[in-house]
Amino acid sequence: HFLLVEHPPVITVGRKRNARRNILDPGGIPVIEVERGGDVTYHAPGQLVGYPILLLEPDSRDLHRYLRDLEDLLIRLLARYGIGAERNPPYTGVWHGGRKLASIGVAVHAWVTLHGFALNVNNDPAEFARIQPCGLPAEVMGSVAQILGHPVDLAGMKKTLRDLVSPPSPPRTTRPEETQASPCHLDGKLLDSPS
Q1: Are strands 31-33 and 10-13 parallel, antiparallel or unpaired?
Q2: Calpha distance 71→128 (Å, rounded)
Q3: N or C: which end of the chain has fewer CB within 10 A?
Q4: Could you list the residue range(s) of the whole structural domain that residue 149 is in?
């Protein structure tokens, strides 16, 4: 399953020790402690938040590799929009021109992944001034719209991301009842995706 959502304004605090010290002025925005790794971040409408819910098979139980895979996915997504994004070691996330575009924080229970990423698309990076996102100065935060100089169709971006995760199937050469499908959630709707 892969949930893609936008959240109302909320500050989330991960499990990193002393993460709460990075909340500067919430200004009435709810602050919620969550079970993901990492520090504090801010969510708002216009931000694409992805929750991959995957069973990590025995040969895929490398959490650092999983984090790099999420970064790779977002780098490929941004390339589709003409943005040359990259990693910025030692930080986890996706960057462009010294600006952090995506934050990543996950949890794993019984080798099932929870939480995921937050990609700043149309949200205002100035709102991060309420916190020190991931323990960094708020000024490092950027957005896709800021780079492109115009808002991005979020529904179109979700479709592009979905296609990167599960490329469209070739035209059918069999009858529908002969095809196996597994359920996939996107935007809270149950979809059929090839297994």
Answers
A1: parallel
A2: 21
A3: C
A4: 2-163
> Could you report the per-residue pLDDT of 2-18, keeping only the tens digit for each?
999 999 999 999 999 88
> Can you tell me which residue has the tokens 């991060």?
128
Residue 100: inside a domain, yes or no?
A: yes
> Is residue 187 in a domain?
no
pLDDT of residue 17: 85
CA quadruple 76, 87, 154, 158: dihedral positive or negative? positive
- Total structural domains within the chain: 1
pLDDT confidence tier of residue 167, bands split at 50, 70 and 90: confident
Q: What is the DSSP string of 150-187?
A: S---HHHHHHHHHHHHSPPPPPP-S-GGG--EEEEEET
Report if residue 177 sits inside a domain: no
Output the domain CATH number for residue 118.
Answer: 3.30.930.10
**Catalytic, out of 49, 134, 141, 184:** 134
pTM of the model: 0.85
- Does residue 134 have an active-site annotation? yes
